[in-house]
Design a protein that fits this description.
By secondary structure, the protein is α+β, with helices and mostly antiparallel strands. The protein has one domain. Helices cover 46% and strands 20% of the residues. The protein has four helices and three strands. It is elongated.
Amino acid sequence: MAVKTIIYKTYGECRNSFLSSALDFEETLDHEREHFDKAVALGYNPVYGFRVILDFPPVILAGLVDFEGRVPEGQDLIDICLAPKNPGEHDHSLAEKTRSELTQQKNNPMPRS
């Protein structure tokens, strides 16, 4: 089963592509837009996309926001994950993992050379 990631340069391209299909992607697109907008506000260069199984009929696995260039870390990543009004399970999981890593780094700082 082949999985392909489809990336769009703008929200508009992604929205137009998926809204032209027979399926309802409005909620997913709006959710991902909140991640996207937060990333832009923090100075990142996000791109939209979907992971798709290319069998017939094609199956959308997930919407995604990815990054060209600098990838968010730490508090920026947490803020991007929790940007939507209703963050998803994956959003909460990634934010909590990142928060835990930040706490661990704070409690166990790397020795300076």
